[in-house]
Structure formats: C-alpha cells, structure tokens
From TrEMBL:
Organism field: Pyxidicoccus parkwayensis
Residue windows of the TPR repeats: 192-225
Swiss-Prot/TrEMBL keywords: TPR repeat
Residues spanning the membrane: none
SUPFAM superfamilies the UniProt entry points to: TPR-like (SSF48452)
Protein name: Tetratricopeptide repeat protein
C-alpha cells in the first residue's frame, strides 16, 4: 500500500510541475500550436514569438513552418524574417524563406534567399536541391537538371543526389549524359538497381527494346527486385508483348504487396485491350487491398 501511495504521489507531482513553470516560454506556445486545428489558432499563439526575447531562430523557424503548413504564408514570412534578423548567417532560415516566398509567388525573393543560402554555405548542396525542386514543380526540367548538376558537383558521393540528377537529365532529354552519370555511380548502388535506372533512361528516350534487355538483366541479378519486374512489364507492353507484360506485372505485385502500381498498370492495360471482365477482377483486388487509395484506382482502373 505504501508503495502504491508513493507511485500515486510521484504521478501527481509530475502533473503539478507544469503549473509552476513560467507561462510565457516559446516552447509552450509551440506545443499548443502543434496541436491546433486551424490557421487562426496557430497565428494567435505563434505571432507573439516575433517579439519574444527568449525565442531562438530555431523556435521562429518552427513557428514559421507551422504557419506555412497551416496556410498562413504571410505570417510565416514575418516570423522567418525575424529569425533572419536574429541570425543572418543561418542557411536553414534562407531555405525556409525561399519556400515561403515560392508559396507567395515572390520570384525575386526566392532567388535572393537561395543566393544568400549558397553564399552562407558554398559547399552545401541543399540550396541547389531546393532550387531544383522549385524549378521542376514549375515545369522547368532543363533548369532543374542544371541545378542538380551543381548539387551533384558538391556531393558526388551521394547516390540519392546522383540518381535524381540522372532522372532530371533523362526527363530533359539528355539521355547520353544521364547514362554517363549512371556509369559514375557504379559501385555506389546495387548493380540491379543501376540496371533499372539505365533502362528507365532508355525508356524515356523511346528505346524500349534496349530497355527490356536491361530490365531483364536487372531481375536476373536480383530476382526479388519488384521495380525491375514493374518496369519490364511496362516496356514489354509498349512493344506489344502483352502476355509477357502481364506476367511481369503480376511478379512485381507478388514481390511488393504494399505497392498498388503494378495492379493499377495491369488494369489500365486490360481496359485498353477491352478485357472488361479481367479489369473488373483486377479492380476488385485493388479495392480489397488498397481501399485507402481510391483516387489512384479511379484514375487507372475506371470500369466503363
């Protein structure tokens, strides 16, 4: 009984401690704002941090992020500017400002913030990565590829950056350059994955026959590589080899039961071939296994 009373006393003390803490700490306002459900509530609790002497630049950046997520970009901008005033040499603040300015459609502000971020950390790839993000979002794939070139030059050992650079080069129709970058990634990513990426480059170039050869090598190298079977199925279908394409897509689905893309592609193929009954069965499977992704199902498997 004494032990139980002691435990209850400790629990009560833990719950009483916050009552004796200062009520005006930035951490408290941030904690309340994190669980707020509307932009108005977040603005109410977070905007006073702009004048709070104890609010750090990191506090102000988090507050700005919460307001940006809560559809209050103008207020987020004010908080980010205050963070910049308190720490002008922070690259994180400049990157945040660039994102906020993009939401506000302030192109000059985006450019200025990214330039300042690069000046603060000349060898950091993150400003170039964000610039590529924004350019790609606006449909400027050539510009995004150029930005990724700078990012890759700063981080040539990062395979994630390298693969993204490859994809943007390929989308921008620079297939030979993309293949050259992939050759430079040999040994940094698994060979089967490298073969899949090479096949994707040729796919974007319309060279499906060559892509099929690479995808087949990839699945021979790694028989459990779902992405290899998925890409192989798509390329085979474009070449008119429908039975082999369906087999590959079913293999892709079997190897990754959490990814709906293989079944969605299969349904789209069946509909294109007017195999309505088969498509209905595929859709039933999709709805049973991926009921939370109805938008994807409707887009790829809309039964007439």
């Amino acid at each position: 009984m004494k032990r139980l009373l002691a435990i209850c006393g400790v629990a009560l003390l833990i719950h009483l401690v916050p009552l004796f803490l200062p009520r005006n700490m930035p951490e408290q306002e941030l904690a309340i704002a994190r669980v707020a459900t509307t932009a108005e509530e977040r603005v109410h609790f977070l905007m006073p941090l702009r004048q709070h002497p104890k609010a750090t630049p990191a506090d102000l950046r988090e507050a700005a992020e919460l307001l940006l997520d809560g559809a209050a970009p103008a207020e987020a901008h004010e908080l980010a500017q205050e963070a910049e005033r308190r720490d002008p040499r922070s690259m994180e603040t400049q990157l945040l400002l660039a994102r906020i300015c993009d939401v506000e459609r302030m192109e000059r502000c985006v450019s200025t913030s990214l330039e300042r971020a690069s000046q603060v950390a000349p060898q950091d790839a993150r400003p170039d990565l964000l610039r590529a993000d924004l350019q790609e979002k606006n449909g400027d794939f050539a510009g995004a590829a150029e930005s990724m070139k700078h990012a890759y030059g700063k981080a040539p050992s990062d395979p994630v950056i390298g693969l993204r650079y490859v994809r943007l080069l390929s989308v921008a129709k620079h297939g030979d350059e993309a293949m050259s970058v992939l050759r430079g990634l040999e040994g940094r990513i698994p060979r089967a994955r490298l073969l899949v990426e090479q096949g994707r480059v040729w796919t974007r170039e319309g060279r499906d026959a060559e892509a099929v050869q690479l995808f087949r090598k990839a699945v021979e190298e790694d028989p459990k590589l779902s992405a290899g079977y998925f890409e192989l199925g798509l390329a085979l279908y474009r070449l008119g080899k429908t039975e082999a394409a369906e087999e590959s897509l079913r293999d892709a689905d079997r190897l990754d039961l959490n990814d709906p893309r293989a079944l969605a592609a299969l349904c789209a193929m069946q509909l294109e071939q007017r195999r309505i009954n088969d498509a209905r069965l595929t859709r039933m499977d999709l709805e049973r296994r991926f009921s939370g992704q109805m938008d994807l199902i409707r887009q790829s498997c809309s039964i007439p």
